[in-house]
Design a protein that fits this description.
Layout (H helix, E strand, L loop, with lengths): L19 H6 L7 H24 L7 H11 L3 H4 L22 H9 L2 H16 L8 H22 L4 H19 L9
Helix pairs in contact: 2-3, 2-7, 2-8, 3-6, 5-7
Length: about 190
């Protein structure tokens, strides 16, 4: 199963995980069915959590489609923008590094590793509508977005055990994509 091993991804001669344009298209490539379905599953979880959180605190200013655009656009940047963090642990509740159980706080930390990617996606989406600009975020929206990204990982981790095998495998393929992007990220610090 992809993502269940602790070893580093294999370096590919063509550098396909380093190419930004490839990373933008890869999660939505119809030739990679498991990756496409896993991407759609993960985006659906993020949008549902964002919508519920926004309804709960009465800050429902973004529609379903805009939330879906933001979270879909953040997916290609999840690994690269989090290159300076340690790799994420799997959804199955077992650490990839030492096979110990993953604590809830570790899942929250893994979820928060996606915050830079969603902020970048939000800025890109706003640049298309407002033109190139200096990023300016409403503090309330910023906190909601960060909370959504942070909470998605533990919630998906909880639901993961109840999903059908195919859905679990699709999510693990997305996890492997993020792990490979993170491994090849230029933000990753090198050990000396």
């Amino acid at each position: 199963m992809p993502g269940s091993k602790a070893d580093d991804p294999k370096i590919q001669a063509d550098g396909s995980y380093q190419n930004i344009m490839t990373n933008v298209v890869l999660p939505f490539d119809p030739r990679r069915t498991k990756l496409l379905l896993g991407s759609l599953e993960y985006i659906a979880f993020e949008v549902l959590i964002a919508k519920m959180l926004r309804k709960l605190i009465r800050a429902d200013t973004l529609g379903w489609a805009e939330l879906a655009y933001i979270h879909a656009l953040s997916l290609p940047f999840m690994g690269g923008a989090a290159g300076f963090f340690n790799p994420q642990d799997g959804y199955d509740g077992v650490r990839t590094s030492d096979s110990k159980p993953v604590a809830f706080t570790d899942k929250l930390m893994d979820g928060s590793k996606g915050i830079p990617a969603v902020l970048l996606a939000q800025w890109i989406l706003n640049s298309f509508s407002k033109g190139f600009h200096v990023p300016w975020f409403n503090m309330k929206d910023l906190l909601i977005t960060a909370a959504t990204k942070t909470l998605t990982r533990p919630i998906v981790g909880f639901v993961y055990a109840y999903l059908p095998e195919a859905a679990r495998e699709n999510l693990m393929v997305v996890d492997e994509l993020v792990r490979r992007q993170q491994f090849f990220s230029t933000l990753k610090s090198t050990d000396k």
